[in-house]
Amino acid sequence: MQYDSKIPIYLQVIDSIKTDIINERIKCGQKLPSSRELAVTYTINPNTAARVYQELEREGVCYTKRGMGTFVTEDEGVIAMLKKEMAEEALDVFLKSISELGISIDEAIELLKQREE
Amino acid sequence: MLESIEVTKKFVGKTAVDGITMQLEPGHIYAMLGPNGSGKTTWMKMAAGLIKPTSGQIRYMGQPISVETKNDIAYMSTEPYFYDWMTVGDVGKYYADFFKDFSMDKYDYLLEKMELLKKLKVKSLSSGMMAKLKVAVTMARDAKVYMLDEPLNGIDLLARDSVMNMILMSADEGKTLLISSHLVEELESVVDKAIFIKNSKFAGIYDVEALRTEDNMSLADKYRQVFSDVDMGGIQ
């Protein structure tokens, strides 16, 4: 994975895992790799990997079964929320660029429709 | 765990290391950063017990560096140190003779991951393969401290990724890893602490994620700030 070196790495890895969950590349209730395996897979520091799981747990996306490892939540409501949140973030980025170009929301909608056709 | 107290090393007409005081703890991967000739290699050689400080002391677990500390501190130097007649397999046996903590199983495992064949002659290896071999044989030790001097030098992007993976496979909360490099970008995601050495002196230690979180700065940005004294404003 290519990282933006100015953005905290743990946030970038969290986004990547959330996207995988939303796309069902990682399924509800699935066991996730150990934080050490995660470190090797993503080429990140093991402490960063541990932080990724701490944050995901705090947000209710994952949970730890003692001695068994980390699992994705089985609560589909959480995943639906996740999708909404990430869509909002993508919209924020889009709207910021559009406003920097001096394009109104209506014009932006028109442009999106044209793209659709 | 590894302490450097006012360590100075003078060679004829040159101070290579000038009063370096710092402390390294287990559970972290440290980058040791500085331009060529800033004293990184000299400091590592002192911590490895290969040369002695002119003044000051390096201590491991409270004990001065000695023959005993070599059992716990694995060091990979920049210069190649294998005989031409050796095969990749011989290098493992050579290490197994020298170091009690050398694991042939781990060596075999790392060689397999790196796609290095044991029958290959050392002198026939490309620089990328040589770099992988040096790191593999060092990380196959079950040491407490690993010091790798320029493990990424002169090798292509794919070999660098492999080397980084090997390093990460060996990292855990009980071990201290120290990697010197001037390829700062390559270390961005892997190290969590960065030590700067400037003109033979200690020039700060930083938490790399904190740089990004609090100062909105990459490790490379910090490197430029520390070493060029150039204003970072404007277009970056």
UniProtKB/TrEMBL annotation, chain A:
Keywords: DNA-binding, Transcription, Transcription regulation. It comes from the Bacteria. The keyword Transcription regulation applies. InterPro entries: Tscrpt_reg_HTH_GntR (IPR000524), WH-like_DNA-bd_sf (IPR036388), WH_DNA-bd_sf (IPR036390). Residues 7-75 form the HTH gntR-type domain. GO terms for molecular function: DNA binding; DNA-binding transcription factor activity. SMART domains: HTH_GNTR. This is GntR family transcriptional regulator. It comes from Pseudobutyrivibrio ruminis.
